[in-house]
Amino acid sequence: MKDIQLSANKPVDWDVAFEPSKIEMLKAGETATVVAILKASKKALPGDYVTTMMAKTPEVNADAQFRIAVKTSDDLGMGRCSDYSGYYRCCLLSVP
User: Fold this and answer.
1) What is the mean pLDDT, run by run of 10 residues, along the chain of 96 residues?
2) Half-sphere exposure of residue 23, counting CA atoms within 13 Å on the CB side?
3) At the N or C end, where does the chain have fewer CB atoms within 10 A?
4) Residue 96, Cα to own-chain centre: how many angstroms?
5) DSSP result, 21-78
6) What are the distances in angstroms from CA 35 to CA 4, 5, 8, 32, 59?
7) What pLDDT does 79 receive?
8) Three-state SS for 84?
9) In the prediction, which pLDDT does 71 show?
10) How high is the pLDDT of residue 74?
């Protein structure tokens, strides 16, 4: 597969970045790991949110859904509130 494009359907005002941002080529039997970095909106209320991550090529498409939990500063535990940035990192896909 060539030119694998990565994208996401995300909640309003959230940011999503991928590392790497795209995959140039995968040969048969190879896999690649992509990391998605999500930043929740400053207006996000505590609760569960669903994000769909997609990998697309001219030949085939794949997607995966992730449930992201936003918690209040009280839920994060003592001492962690001050450095809470709203960022989430997750392993996205291994593309066969």
Assistant:
1) 92 90 88 86 85 90 86 51 41 42
2) 24
3) C
4) 18
5) SEEEE--TT---EEEEEEE--TTPPSEEEEEEEEEE-SS-EEEEEEEEEE--HHHH-T
6) 14, 13, 12, 10, 23
7) 34
8) coil
9) 76
10) 55
pLDDT recorded at residue 92: 40
Spatial distance between the Cα atoms of 96 and 79, rounded to a whole number of angstroms: 41
User: For residues 74 and 96, what is the distance between their CA atoms, to the nearest angstrom?
Assistant: 40
Dist CA 58 CA 68 (whole Å): 29
pLDDT at 28: 84
Q: Which two tokens stand for residue 45?
A: 């209320």
Q: Name the one residue in this structure whose structure tokens are 């590392």.
A: 19
Of 70, 92, 76, 83, residue with least CA distance to 14: 70
36 token code pair: 């998605």
Contact assessment for residue 6 and residue 95, using Cβ atoms and an 8 Å cutoff? no
pLDDT of the residue at 73: 59
